Each structure stands twice: as structure tokens, then as C-alpha cells.
Amino acid sequence: MLKLPLCELLNLEFPIIQGGMAWVADAYLAAAVSNAGGLGLIAGMSMNGEQLRAEIRKARTLTDKPFGVNIMLMSPYASEVAKVVVEENIPVVTTGAGNPASYMKAWKEAGIKVLPVVASTGLAKMMERAGADAVIAEGCESGGHIGELTTMALVPQVCDAVSIPVIAAGGIGDGRGLAAAVMLGASGVQVGTAFLVAEECTIHENYKKRVLAAKDIDTMATGHRFGHPVRSLKTNFSRKYRKLEFEPETTHEQLEALGVGALRRAAREGDEENGCFMAGQVAGLIKAIRPARQIMEEMTAQAAEILKGASRWVR
Ligand code: TUI
Predict the structure, then answer these.
(1) Is the CB–ligand 1 distance for residue 230 below 6 Å?
(2) In this model, does residue 71 exceed pLDDT 90?
(3) Average pLDDT for 139-155
(4) Measured from the CB, is residue 72 less than 6 Å from ligand 1?
């Protein structure tokens, strides 16, 4: 058993939040993780308001446990989905890829627990002032859209900057990562890549196979040139994107056109040529398909063992 402050904050058995992965984190995965004792999330990213509402209602047929919604703030539907979470009485909202300050008042008035993802101490402090219940400090080991700092550097600095709980994310693939996050001051963790290959995750089997086959150096970040770096598995697509990105005549529009739909093509169609298979640097640690409950049990048991044993180094 590993009881961290996140367990109490969100009434969870395991101190683990599932990442709000676009085109991956659907009703099935969210319900599975919540049923298994973590906090499941539906990713609002790929949906408009009504699609999200339908997904929330589907999840409610699959679990009686609370689950949350992740709102990707660069989504064209962000303001629509921000209203739907209130109307649907969603208890926990996480946000990513931006500053959710303009939505905070409405969410707090609705009694929602708000956990913004931050990649810097500046945004963390701003979120604390705006009423966030905790912040998720996400390092650039993560899959998907990333900031500049590593989890190792970011988490302790965010812990020093705010008084609310800090959840660590990025580079946490097993109990060693969870134990390390605790040592850095984290109150819990958010896990994405390890859940990509959960038995209950509905992504295309090609995606799961690629994650399972990935080695340590098999992810890369693209998109730096236009300010939105994204980490994904090295594929023909990501290499093509990288090459085009650094050709001087390439425009933002051209890159956007190449990227549109790439996540969906990976997650839903398993398109190995034109899909963008987002995954974190811990992909190389992930070796087997397991049910969500087993993923969390093994991670927390390993972390508890390590944390108990750590005192042997102290004289
Ligand atoms: O948001 C994520 N991960 C994502 S979003 C996504 S969809 C996408 N597709 C194409 C291009 C871009 C995104 C896939 N993966 N993680 C949370 C996260 N948020 N990581 C980093 C940040 C972040 C970075 C800077 C949050 C705030 C921020 O600054 C905001 C500000 O205004 O200061």
C-alpha cells in the first residue's frame, strides 16, 4: 500500500492519475482506470462539446466511480468543453498546453477540483493564485506536447514555488519512477505511456506493438521551430516532419497540414506511414500488455518497496 496525499485529495486507492491522451483516453480507458482504483480521464482534445458529453455518459455506463476530463487548451473546442464539464458535474478537470485562468472561476464555483498541467514555476504560481487544487508538473520526458524542463528539474522547483500539492508527470513508467517522484516532493503521479498498452486501452494494435518494441532512444521531439514541441515515437512520419520543419521555406501552415489528423491516424487507424504515435521516453520500459489494475498495483508495490528500503543508506 502506498498512501500519498493525492489518494486523499481525490479519494483514490492508488496515487495515480491517467494522462489525458488525445484520441487515446476514451470512456473505456477512463472507466477502467477509475474502476481499478486510480483516476481515469477522458481527453476532451479530440471532441467538441456534444461529443464529449456523449463520451462522459458512455463512461458513466461503465463505472460508478468518479473520473475526470482533460481539456487541451489549444483545442478549437476548449471553451465548449469547458462548459460541458460543469453541466455534466465532472468532479476533476486537468488542463494542458496553455493557461486555463479564464475558466477557473466557473470551474471552482461548480465545485470542480482543478489540476492544471504546468511546465514552469511561473504558471504553477499563477494557478495556485487562481484557485487550483493541485498542479501537475510535467517534464519533457512525456509524450505529446512538452515544455523545456525535465521532470527531475521541474518537480522540486514547482514544489518550492507553491503550497498546493504537486503531481509529477513525465518519465514515470514503473515503481522506480513513482518512488523518485515522491523523493522530489510529489504528492502523486500522472502516468500516460504505461496506460497506452493497458489491456483496456482501445488504441490500434499497431500503436501498442510500437510502444512495446520501443527502445530507450526511440522517441523524438518535433515542432520546436513553431513553438509547440511534441514527443512521439520515431517513425517515417516524425522523421519527415522534422526534415520539413527545418527546411527554411517551410511555412507554419504546411506543417499544420501535415500534422492534422496524424494523432487520430495513429491511435484509431494504426497508420504506420502517416500517423503520429505520441509516447514518452519511458516507452522503452514498457514491456507487456497488462490490465490497468495490474499496472497500478505493480507500480505502487515496487515504489513502496523502494521507499521502505531507502533508509538503509542513511547513517
Ligand atoms: O498538453 C499536453 N500534452 C499534449 S496536448 C496534445 S495535442 C497537440 N497536438 C499537436 C500539437 C500540440 C498539441 C498532445 N499532447 N501536456 C500538458 C502540457 N502542458 N505539457 C506542457 C504544457 C504546457 C506548456 C506551456 C502548459 C502551459 C504552458 O504555458 C502556458 C502559458 O500560457 O504560460
Answers:
(1) yes
(2) yes
(3) 98
(4) yes
Residue 188's beta-bridge partner residues? Answer: 167
pLDDT score of 266: 98
Number of the ligand 1 atom closest to the C-alpha atom of 73: 1
Q: Cβ distance 200 to 291 under 8 Å? A: yes
Instruction: List the grid coordinates of 146.
Output: 512538452
Question: Ligand 1 pocket, 123 CB below 6 A?
Answer: yes
What is the pLDDT at residue 260? 85
SS3 of the chain: helix, strand, coil, percent, to 5: 45, 15, 40
Q: What CA–CA distance (Å, rounded) separates 254 from 242?
A: 13
For residues 124 and 158, the answer to whether their CB atoms sit within 8 Å is yes
Q: CB-hemisphere CA count at 13 Å for 166?
A: 29
Neighbours of 24 (CB within 10 A): 27
C-alpha R_g of the chain? 18
- Closest ligand 1 atom to residue 223 Cα is 11
Mean pLDDT, residues 94-102: 97
- Give the orientation angle of helix 236-245 with respect to helix 252-259, to 10 degrees: 170
CA distance from start to end of the chain: 26
Distance 146 CA to ligand 1 centre (A): 6
Mean pLDDT within 115-120: 98
Give the SS3 label for residue 190: strand
